[in-house]
């Protein structure tokens, strides 16, 4: 026994079927009620994909009832029963085929869209041929119009499926679509207005030449598909279809069937284009996610390196704080006369404490959220900070680090902590490379120059350069030549810079004082320059 839920859904489906069949019942042909656009077929296919083979009976019932209510059984009741059963069987087979990859995979990729279109094309042709064959067998149709009849039936059904099925399959995500629509309301309204105006020009003003002037309709449809992907394409197709039915209904000048052939091309173009755009949007979203995941990994992978930066940054204010407090202690010795320098010393101590806590807060923000807070900052000062953190290691390894970054360089817009991490990584890599290769010339050069709206900061070393087997892949995660390396430093450095509108590249050899070596170049936007 079918459950109450199934019966309710079946009843709603049958009512919807009859309603859309009635709404789409325009310019019927061949005294058989063959209409140029069969939205009810689109509804049936969506219902069958959703319900599976058990939806076949409600579909046959809906087709039969609609034949009675909307068309008044033009070819007799036996023909009506036979065609209803035929339609239900054929579309159930199609639905079962389409369901195999799950309803969610209906048209999001161009390959899925092509599969969907191909399967529907075959099935609708078959249904049309079967329908006309039944009519011929019943003697309801002369043989000489059989081919034309199949073509007309096919166009109507195929268009109905293309305009409604993908949209109905997507319906469960309507909340997401509504949110996107609200966010870009103006654009959507403008597109709708342009589409409506173009249709009015073609189907009302130039009604008797609508076929000749149909092609401008491609422009708004392509615009919509490019901006909204596959969902936009199907909504646009439906809007065009409804508009067309509405506008051409009274005019009667343009033959709907001929227009429907053109509509078919339009809808197919929009659907495939929309699917291509959707796929590209999805790939971009995946890239963004990967960048974010990398940035997260960075926060952990660089924890060790950050510890030394942290020690350096905190060491200075804490040492100063301790000396100011000691001085204050001496100045405040009981019995001594009040020293006017005491409040000033305490004030200095307080500001050092504030400096230390702001360093901590910045680091905590970075580790907990990973968000970049770009502010104007001086590259010369930032480089000095990073170099200071490496003093001990440079001395130990005998590497000379020359910094040629002019303090007059205009400030760049960047997140101080993240940029420090990137520079830290690059300098550490350069030292590693020089040490491992045992290079005779041990030199790292940091230089910067302004280029238009940005500053290029180069870090070149006299090491052996990036090994040829990894040269093209150093920015990919987990590419490393070091025994204990994670291969994340460069990948994450690049994603951190990109998130701030900058870039990190490897420009090969030509290093400090040697023809060998590696050279990494950072591009950073100037403060005040427009972000990309
Ligand atoms: P890791 O340092 O953990 O290996 P990175 O992403 O920082 O990860 O570096 C990836 C690889 O790029 C290194 O293993 C090394 O082979 C190469 N590389 C990076 N910087 C240099 C450099 N300055 N000179 C030569 N090779 C380098």
Describe this structure in words.
The protein is α+β, with helices and mostly antiparallel strands. It has four domains: 1-172, Arp2/3 complex 21 kDa subunit ARPC3 (Orthogonal Bundle); 184-291; 306-371; 374-532, 2-Layer Sandwich (Heat Shock Protein 90). Helix content is 65%, strand content 8%. The protein is built from 15 helices and seven strands. The strands form two sheets. A five-stranded mixed sheet has the order 2-4-5-7-6, with helices on one face. The chain has a two-stranded antiparallel ribbon with strand order 1-3. α4 runs antiparallel to α5, α6 crosses α9 (218-251) and α10 crosses α15 (489-499). The chain is elongated and about 120 Å long. The protein binds adenosine-5'-diphosphate (ADP). Adenosine-5'-diphosphate binds next to α14 and α15.
Provide the CATH topology of the largest domain: Arp2/3 complex 21 kDa subunit ARPC3
Secondary-structure class = alpha+beta
Q: In terms of per-residue confidence, which ranges show pLDDT below 50 for 5 or more consecutive residues?
A: none
Counting copies of identical and different chains, the oligomeric state is single chain
Encode the helix/strand succession as letters: HHHHHHHHHHHHEHEEHEEHEE
Strands side by side in the biggest sheet: 2-4-5-7-6
Name of the CATH architecture of the largest domain: Orthogonal Bundle
Spatial gap, N to C terminus = 62 Å
Query: What value does the average pLDDT take?
Result: 84
Q: How helix-rich are the residues, as a percent range?
A: 55-70%
Specify the CATH class of the largest domain: Mainly Alpha
Secondary structure: number of strands: 7
Summed up, the domain count is: 4
Overall body shape: elongated
Main β-sheet: number of strands, strand sense, barrel status? 5 strands, mixed
Instruction: Count every helix, treating DSSP H or I runs of 4 or more residues as helices.
Output: 15
Rounded to the nearest angstrom, the radius of gyration is 36 Å
């Amino acid at each position: 026994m079918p459950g109450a839920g199934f019966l309710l859904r079946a009843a709603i489906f049958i009512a919807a079927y009859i309603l859309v069949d009635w709404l789409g019942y325009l310019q019927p042909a061949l005294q058989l009620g063959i209409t140029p656009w069969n939205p009810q077929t689109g509804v049936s296919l969506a219902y069958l994909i959703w319900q599976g083979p058990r939806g076949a009976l409600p579909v046959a019932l809906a087709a039969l009832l609609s034949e009675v209510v909307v068309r008044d059984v033009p070819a007799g009741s036996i023909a009506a029963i036979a065609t209803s059963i035929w339609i239900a069987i054929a579309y159930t087979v199609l639905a079962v085929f389409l369901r195999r990859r799950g309803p969610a995979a209906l048209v999001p990729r161009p390959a899925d869209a092509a599969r969907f279109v191909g399967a529907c094309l075959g099935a609708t042709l078959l249904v049309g041929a079967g329908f006309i064959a039944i009519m011929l067998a019943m003697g309801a149709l002369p043989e000489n119009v059989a081919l034309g009849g199949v073509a007309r039936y096919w166009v109507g059904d195929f268009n109905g499926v293309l305009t409604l099925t993908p949209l109905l399959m997507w319906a469960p995500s309507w909340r997401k679509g509504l949110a996107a629509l609200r966010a870009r309301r103006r654009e959507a309204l403008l597109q709708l207005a342009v589409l409506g105006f173009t249709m009015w020009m073609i189907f009302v003003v130039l009604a008797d030449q609508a076929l000749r002037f149909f092609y401008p309709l491609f422009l708004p449809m392509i615009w919509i598909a490019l901006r909204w992907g596959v969902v936009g394409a199907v909504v646009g197709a439906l809007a065009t279809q409804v508009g067309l039915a509405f506008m051409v209904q009274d005019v009667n000048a343009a033959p709907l069937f001929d227009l429907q052939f053109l509509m078919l091309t339009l809808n197919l173009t929009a659907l495939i284009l929309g699917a291509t755009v959707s796929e590209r949007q999805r790939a971009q979203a995946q890239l963004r996610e990967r960048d974010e995941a990398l940035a997260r990994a960075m926060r952990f992978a660089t924890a060790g390196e950050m510890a030394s930066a942290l020690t350096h940054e905190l060491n200075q204010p804490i040492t100063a704080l301790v000396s100011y407090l000691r001085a204050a202690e001496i100045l405040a010795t009981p019995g001594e006369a009040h020293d006017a320098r005491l409040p000033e010393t305490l004030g200095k101590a307080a500001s050092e404490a504030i400096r230390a806590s702001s360093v901590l807060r910045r680091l905590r923000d970075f580790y907990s959220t990973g968000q970049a807070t770009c502010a104007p900052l001086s590259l010369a000062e930032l480089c000095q900070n990073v170099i200071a953190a490496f003093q001990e290691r440079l001395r130990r390894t005998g590497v000379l680090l020359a910094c040629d970054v002019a303090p007059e360089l205009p400030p760049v817009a960047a997140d101080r902590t993240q940029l420090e991490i990137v520079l830290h990584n690059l300098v550490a890599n350069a030292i590693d490379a020089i040490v491992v290769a045992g290079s005779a010339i041990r030199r790292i050069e940091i230089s910067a120059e302004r280029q238009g709206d940005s500053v290029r900061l180069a870090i070149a070393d006299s090491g052996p350069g990036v090994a040829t087997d990894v040269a093209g892949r150093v920015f990919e995660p987990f590419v490393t030549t070091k025994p204990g390396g994670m291969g994340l430093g460069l990948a994450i450095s690049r994603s951190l810079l990109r998130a701030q509108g900058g870039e990190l590249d490897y420009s090969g050899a030509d290093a400090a004082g040697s023809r060998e070596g590696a050279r990494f170049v950072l591009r950073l936007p100037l403060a005040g320059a427009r972000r990309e």
